[in-house]
Amino acid sequence: MANILLKNVWKRFGSHDIVKNFSLEIPDKSFCILVGPSGCGKTTTLRMVAGLEEISEGEIFIDGVKVNDIPPKNRDIAMVFQSYALYPHMTVYDNMAFGLKLRGYSKKEIQQRVQEAAEILGIGHLLERRPKQLSGGQRQRVAVGRAIVRKPKVFLFDEPLSNLDAKLRGQMRTELKKIHERLQSTMIYVTHDQTEAMTMGDKICVMKEGIIQQIDGPIDLYNNPINKFVAGFIGSPAMNFIEVEVLDKNGDIFLDEGSFDVKLPENYKEKLLNYAGQKVILGIRPENIYDKLFYNLHEKGVSSFSATVEVVEPLGSEIYLHLNTGKNELTVKVDSHNQAKTNQIIELVFSLSKSHLFDVKDGSKII
């Protein structure tokens, strides 16, 4: 397999910078996710690694070899696209074997590789079928199998699950993780779905407008987002953001939301004294806001407030409550035994130790 290095890579279309000064090192055998909203440059970056897009500036190395001027067929990579791109007139076996035939492999070698890939993917019984006889999930497995038989240094996936329904996406996420563990290969996976990023990747690169926002593991991204964009993009439901004013009351620091205020712990004072009289953004995740009726009140650093329930979304094992404080709308994740009803006013608490504060102007993290 191989490690991948992108150094100060730019991609321009005319006068527009699509990918800007992109630098990323992907270790051998890692599963790296490029995630971000549509149009952020993640697919363009993947295509530059594959050689399908020319680099405007910078360098790309695969296994220590600079590949800027090496054509795609000589980079020893395999790419799985959003569309399955299977030959409709060929059987599953022939679709998987086609690339190997073009490269002059023997029939015995081709048969062995196809059988091995089919076994890994659980599609051995489908080898004689044609694509029109397959479900969406089966077609996607064939597309992945066509890449596996190549035994490339690097696998590239461009939103391969976006055409599948929710249940199949969940199944295929698991399958791709199993494949990665079995093959011990280097994989780069592009998606706009933060759930796919969090559940599949051991290294996640969050992008916005062609610029890397943060590179980290899934848990570190979730717990320690570097700015408001990352905090809002990672996590489902999304983090709640509340604009508050920082108040200095006789040396104690408070955050005033308008309908309630909260006192900050002593260790927050130093970082927030310079913001006294200014607005900041308080960020807190739905699972870190609790119904006061079901919360242990002995924990320190807990603040309470009231809000009106506007929408109740029961999801079986949990419930999402959409609330209004009179100034802000919030989403709260509670247990399924919660009895809150629409239009009911409930008391809520949250722990400041699990909250984040961001600068209003640029979204950078304060605390």
Key words describing this protein structure:
367 residues, alpha+beta, Rossmann fold, OB fold (Dihydrolipoamide Acetyltransferase, E2P), 2 domains, six-stranded mixed β-sheet, five-stranded antiparallel β-sheet, 20 strands, 24% helix
Describe the fold and architecture.
The chain is an alpha+beta fold and 367 residues long. It has helices spanning 42-50, 92-102, 107-121, 136-148, 166-183, 194-200, 218-223, 228-233, 269-272; strands at 4-13, 16-26, 31-35, 57-62, 65-66, 77-80, 154-158, 186-191, 203-208, 211-216, 240-249, 252-256, 261-263, 279-284, 289-291, 302-314, 318-324, 329-335, 345-351, 356-359. It folds into two domains: 4-233, Rossmann fold, CATH 3.40.50.300; 240-359, OB fold (Dihydrolipoamide Acetyltransferase, E2P), CATH 2.40.50. β7, α5 (166-183) and β8 form a beta-alpha-beta unit. The radius of gyration is 25 Å and the shape is elongated. The model has no long low-confidence stretch (mean pLDDT 91).
